[in-house]
């Protein structure tokens, strides 16, 4: 088995930290927060270490994005909970963090003929319109992810719920391409 330099680019996770969160108070008391309710109903809070951004909604729902690992997403949520407690906002101590989406990149290390791949893999799970987009879109059922494959051999895997989903998708695709003699 080969190493295709699979790298997690972004983890999107969500949690519930409470209810009836006072976003105006947060925006007044936490200097780096951004809240423009006329443009968007959520407040943006950023963490520096790990680097992430969280959208906090009045309902208590939080969506954390931008971290590079599941553990970093959890650490960012913990920091946000701590920041809110420090200014007197009532929140859940240990909210359950649920991964919604993991975006990863990989590199097969070879140039690919996307036309041949589109035909070889069968058109039912493939979208390939080079006039519209330079990559081939491949939807997998197992793992349940969407993979963008580019002629350079680079890939973007999205929709996974665990880092292992990206690894399995890349291994499966490289195996399929090898079997078809396209890699």
Automatic annotation (TrEMBL):
Which Pfam families does this chain map to? Answer: TBP
- Natural source organism: Archaeoglobus fulgidus
**Does the keyword section mention Transcription regulation?**
yes
Biological role: General factor that plays a role in the activation of archaeal genes transcribed by RNA polymerase. Binds specifically to the TATA box promoter element which lies close to the position of transcription initiation.
For this protein, the record's InterPro entries field holds: TBP, TBP_archaea, TBP_CS, TBP_dom_sf
Q: Does the keyword Isomerase apply?
A: no
sequence repeat start-end pairs: 8-84
Q: Which family does it belong to?
A: Belongs to the TBP family.
Q: Which UniProt keywords apply?
A: DNA-binding, Repeat, Transcription, Transcription regulation
Enumerate the GO terms in the molecular function aspect. Answer: DNA binding; DNA-binding transcription factor activity
State the name under which the record lists this protein: TATA-box-binding protein
Q: Name any Gene Ontology BP term.
A: DNA-templated transcription initiation
């Amino acid at each position: 088995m080969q190493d295709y330099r699979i790298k997690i680019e972004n983890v999107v996770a969500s949690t519930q930290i409470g209810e009836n969160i006072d976003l105006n108070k947060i925006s007044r008391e936490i200097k780096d927060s951004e809240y423009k309710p006329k443009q968007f109903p959520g407040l943006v809070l950023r963490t520096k270490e790990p680097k992430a951004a969280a959208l906090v909604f009045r309902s208590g729902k939080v969506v954390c994005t931008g971290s590079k690992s599941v553990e970093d997403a959890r650490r960012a949520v913990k920091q946000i909970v701590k920041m809110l407690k420090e200014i007197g906002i009532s929140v859940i101590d240990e909210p359950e963090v649920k991964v919604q989406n993991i975006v990863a990149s990989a590199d097969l290390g070879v140039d690919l003929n996307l036309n041949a791949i589109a035909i070889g893999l069968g058109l039912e799970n493939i979208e390939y319109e080079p006039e519209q987009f330079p990559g081939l879109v491949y939807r997998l059922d197992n793992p349940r992810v969407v993979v963008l494959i580019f002629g350079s051999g680079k890939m973007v895997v999205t929709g996974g719920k665990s880092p292992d989903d990206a690894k399995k998708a890349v291994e499966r695709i490289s195996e399929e391409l090898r079997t078809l003699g396209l890699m």
